[in-house]
């Protein structure tokens, strides 16, 4: 087995008396889509923010390429190749795709003592990277707000990959999308995985996880219920681990077996 790109070993995180994570361990391999599943309140958001440098763990160890690291802020994680695409995507709808793609990292060219944004280079790279992800834009000046939800997700993913992400954390990327848009995002995830980048796919949708996942880790109330590879668990078993099998069975019985 290849060496993990990132490992989180026995991670705990407390906020005062509240224990958000209690001994969670996860690793991500090159070219792997590792799905992190759990219901609302399971600890998924706290865990990815710990991985992304937003929170420092109360205890436990983070290793990148086998070496222990400590992230003081998200910039440290980004420097180590850990990129996160959050649900809000951190985009400005009225700005163009190219400006959103390069936001904060604009290429420059000099005119005497002045440095201006290299618009031609920015547009060319944006169009090329979006085509690589399967999205054909009308033009790079197209406003992000005119794109579908799936296309916006793809812009955010393409941006992270272009700027050197080795591990890509996707926070519920399909939660608010329709069927076609979801299919586009899952196809993008597959493209990125085949490029050798490790993906952490956070979701509570078992079907979406099963479509692209290589390994599956279930969180429940801040604890890991286990990690399984593709083919080792059925969708029904994953659903039961997430939601609690006894409660779901009782609900299904009361609703005439429709759950």
Strand order of the largest sheet: 6-9-10-3-11-12
Residue runs with pLDDT of under 50 for 5 or more positions: none
Contiguous helical run count? 9
Q: What overall form do the CA principal axes indicate?
A: globular
In short:
The chain is 34% helix and 27% strand. A hairpin with a 2-residue loop joins strand 4 (59-64) and strand 5.
Layout of strands and helices, then pairs:
Elements: E1 6-15, E2 18-28, E3 33-37, H1 44-51, E4 59-64, E5 67-69, H2 74-79, E6 82-85, H3 97-101, E7 108-111, E8 114-117, H4 119-132, H5 149-162, E9 167-171, H6 179-194, E10 198-203, H7 206-212, E11 215-220, E12 223-229, H8 235-243, H9 245-254
Parallel strand pairs: 3-10, 3-11, 6-9, 9-10
Antiparallel strand pairs: 1-2, 1-4, 4-5, 7-8, 11-12
Helix pairs in contact: 5-6, 8-9
Provide a descriptive summary of the structure in words.
This protein has 259 residues and is an alpha/beta fold. It has nine helices and twelve strands. The protein has helices spanning 44-51, 74-79, 97-101, 119-132, 149-162, 179-194, 206-212, 235-243, 245-254; strands spanning 6-15, 18-28, 33-37, 59-64, 67-69, 82-85, 108-111, 114-117, 167-171, 198-203, 215-220, 223-229. The strands form three sheets. A six-stranded mixed β-sheet has the order 6-9-10-3-11-12, with helices on both faces. The chain has a four-stranded antiparallel β-sheet with strand order 2-1-4-5, with helices on one face. A hairpin with a 2-residue loop joins β1 and β2 (18-28). The chain is globular. The two termini are 38 Å apart. The mean pLDDT is 88.
